[in-house]
Specification:
Blueprint lengths: L2 E4 L5 H4 L4 E3 L3 E3 L7 E5 L5 E7 L5 E7 L8 H17 L6 E6 L8 E6 L2 E6 L2 H5 L1 H12 L4 E5 L12 E6 L5 E6 L2 E6 L13 H13 L4 E5 L5 H8 L4 E6 L2 H13 L7 E5 L2 H10 L4 E6 L11 H18 E11 L6 H15 L3 E8 L17 E7 L1
Parallel strand pairs: 1-4, 9-10, 14-15, 14-17, 15-16, 17-18
Antiparallel strand pairs: 1-3, 2-6, 4-5, 5-6, 7-8, 8-9, 10-11, 12-13, 18-20, 19-20
Helix pairs in contact: 2-4, 5-6, 8-9, 9-10
C-alpha cells in the first residue's frame, strides 16, 4: 500500500476528522488517480486511508480513520447501506431523495439522488471515479432498481483531472421523470436538468413557502432565478393569485409553465418572464411595482471563499432591490448556495442590503438544505445552502 507523509503540524485537521488533505500539506508520497493511500503524520503515525488525486488541490480525501478498515467492495457496501438506512428514517414527503451526500456519508466525491425508479449519480473525485463500476452495482443491489444515469458533468471534474461523462451507466430508457413532492407533482429530465436533475435540497423550503404565503395571505409573488418553478408552484399552492417566474432559461420557464398545468392551477395566475433578474428587478422598481412575497434563489456566486468579496456585492444588490420591491409587511425568502459565503456573512450581506434600501425586517426563520443533504460536525464545508425568511417592517 502506498503512503503519503504530511508536513509537521499539518495533521491537525485529520485529527479532528476533517476528510481533506491539501496539496501543500504533503511532505512526500504520491499515487495513481483514485488509488487508496495510507496518510501518515510527519512522524509516521497513521491518520487515515484516503483516495489520492494527483491533479487536485485537495490531494487526498479520507475514506476512513480506522486503520483496521480495508477499502474494498465490502467497505462501499457498508457505507451505501448505512446511507440508505439513514434516509429510511427521515420523514421525506417525496419519492425523490438524496441517497448519498459525499463526505457526510463517508463517500467523498459521490452524489446519488433517487428520482422515483431512476438513480442519478455524480462521480466527482478521482476516488469515486476509480470505484465507479463497483459503486454502481452496489447501488442497484441496495435499492432494487435497474437504471442508473450518470451526471458527472459538474465543473469540479476537470479539477480532478477527469473529463465530463454523462449517459446511462446501468440500464436505459427515457430520462423524463415525474416526481411527487409534498402535495405537488414536478417533472425533470435527469439528462438535462441542473445537478443530477433537480434541486432536492429546497424541498422543505418550498413547503415552508407555501405555508407562509397562505398564513400571511400573500397574493402577488415574484420568484427570481425560478428555474423550473418549484417555488412558483408552492406560491400557487399557498393561494397566491399572481405569480411571476423570472429566469434567463427559456426551457426552464417552459417547464415551470408546464408545472402549473400539471398541478391543476389556473394558467392566468402565472407568468413566465425570460429575462435577466437584475435588470428585471430594476425595471419593476421603475414601474412602481410591489409584491407581497419575493423569492431570491440565485446560482452559486461564490464557489470558494476567494470569490466572497465579489459575490457579496452581487448578493447585496439583489437583496437591496428585493427589499425595496416588497410591500410593507411583505416576505423575502432569500438564499445563498455559495460555499464561500457562510451563514454569518450572508446575514451581514442582507443586513447591509436593508441599510442601503432603508428597510428593516424581522428574521422569521433561518433555513438550510433538507435533512437528506446532511452536514456533519467535522465537515463545516457541507453547509452550503443557507436562507433567511424576512418579514419587512
Amino acid at each position: 500500500m502506498k503512503s503519503i507523509r504530511l508536513r509537521e503540524g499539518k495533521d491537525r485537521s485529520l485529527l479532528r476528522r476533517h476528510p481533506w488533505v491539501f496539496e501543500g500539506s504533503i511532505q512526500k508520497g504520491k499515487a495513481d488517480p483514485g488509488e487508496t493511500v495510507r496518510v501518515e503524520s510527519s512522524t509516521g503515525d497513521f491518520l487515515c486511508w484516503a483516495s489520492f488525486s494527483p491533479e487536485s488541490k485537495i490531494r487526498a480525501r479520507a475514506w476512513t480513520f480506522d486503520e483496521k478498515e480495508r477499502i474494498d467492495e465490502a467497505f462501499f457496501k457498508r457505507r451505501i447501506e448505512a446511507a440508505l438506512a439513514l434516509r429510511a428514517r427521515m420523514p421525506i414527503a417525496s419519492n425523490a431523495v438524496r441517497l448519498i451526500h459525499g463526505e457526510a456519508d463517508g463517500l467523498p466525491g459521490l452524489i446519488v439522488d433517487r428520482y422515483d425508479d431512476v438513480l442519478s449519480a455524480q462521480f466527482l473525485s478521482a476516488g469515486a471515479e476509480r470505484w465507479k463500476q463497483t459503486i454502481a452495482d452496489l447501488l442497484l443491489a441496495a435499492t432494487g432498481l435497474s437504471r442508473l444515469y450518470e451526471r458527472s458533468d459538474a465543473n469540479v471534474r476537470p479539477l480532478e483531472g477527469l473529463a465530463p461523462v454523462t449517459g446511462w451507466l446501468r440500464g436505459d430508457g427515457g430520462t423524463e421523470i415525474v416526481i411527487a413532492e409534498n402535495d405537488w407533482k414536478l417533472s425533470l429530465d435527469v439528462a438535462e436538468g441542473h445537478k443530477t436533475g433537480y434541486y432536492l435540497d429546497q424541498r422543505d423550503n418550498r413547503k415552508k413557502f407555501a405555508e407562509v404565503v397562505r398564513h400571511y395571505g400573500c397574493q402577488s409573488v415574484l420568484n427570481c432565478f425560478s428555474y423550473t418553478g418549484g417555488f412558483s408552484v408552492a406560491a400557487l399552492a399557498g393561494g397566491a393569485t399572481e405569480v411571476i417566474s423570472v429566469d434567463s432559461s427559456g426551457p426552464a420557464l417552459a417547464r415551470a409553465t408546464a408545472h402549473v398545468a400539471l398541478n391543476g392551477y389556473d394558467a392566468a395566475r402565472h407568468t413566465s418572464l425570460d429575462a435577466d433578474v437584475n435588470h428585471t428587478l430594476r425595471d419593476l422598481l421603475k414601474q412602481g411595482r410591489q409584491f407581497d412575497a419575493i423569492v431570491l434563489d440565485p446560482p452559486k456566486f461564490a464557489p470558494t471563499a476567494a470569490h466572497a468579496d465579489r459575490a457579496s456585492r452581487a448578493y447585496k444588490d439583489i437583496n437591496r432591490l428585493g427589499l425595496m420591491l416588497l410591500k410593507p409587511g411583505g416576505l423575502l425568502f432569500t438564499f445563498s448556495c455559495s460555499g464561500g459565503i457562510g451563514p454569518e456573512l450572508f446575514h451581514k450581506i442582507v443586513a447591509g442590503a436593508g441599510m442601503d434600501a432603508g428597510v428593516d425586517g424581522l428574521i422569521l426563520d433561518r433555513v438550510g438544505a433538507t435533512p437528506d443533504h446532511p452536514q456533519t460536525l467535522y465537515f463545516p464545508e457541507g453547509e452550503y445552502l443557507k436562507g433567511l425568511l424576512i418579514l419587512k417592517r
